[in-house]
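Hello, quick one for you while I still have it in my head. Could you read through the record and tell me how the tokens relate to the sequence? No rush at all, and the record is pasted right below.
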Amino acid sequence: MSRNHKEIGSFYDHVYYKHARLTRRLPHHLRRMAARLEPWEGRQLLDVGCGTGEWLRAAAERGAIPSGIDISQVAIDICQRALPEAELYCGPGESLPFENDRFDFVSCLGSLEHFLDPESALREMARVAKPGAVSLLLVPNANFLLRRLGIFYGTQQADLREDVRTLAGWQELFELAGHRVVRRWKDLHILSWSWIRLGRWYLWPIRAALALSLPFWPLSWQYQVYHLCEIKK
């Protein structure tokens, strides 16, 4: 079924973020990642698909100047309360309301696969990035072991729009749109009690086993993978 941005925005406002609230405590994995990617002081950061702004907040704590865009007005309202100084917009990632050559760092974490036109969004990210800027992209892997075994079928958003590619397929798309991959690493945020205890209690042992085994799986079996890229202008 074809979708449009209005339908997608409505889903995120009324379903995905229906119960979202501003939380003061940031996920530990985002704080670790912000520390890993220092220095941030004075750097202009744009997060595309910023949601409620947790990643922006983690980087802003270390001195980043935050900007963001998300298709959900509910998410943007929460993000603005958390980051009143941030420049935030509600809209699709395929059309960014920012000038050329502005940002030092552009990110899109766990969102690109849900965009109607991922290539256009990537080209827009390259357009608004400064020469020499970097991007950080987190995307799902079509070769995720549980997907290949027929145990996992996608996220809550899959019925709406979820474009899942192999790591090679994502890299080809990134480089076509001006993002040259320089480093990749595993997304291990599920190594936490908060993730393990999601859902019904009788699934907790299964989730715990998955979380504890993930660090030992090769990159090609991972659920999601981070890609750090140089943006080619």
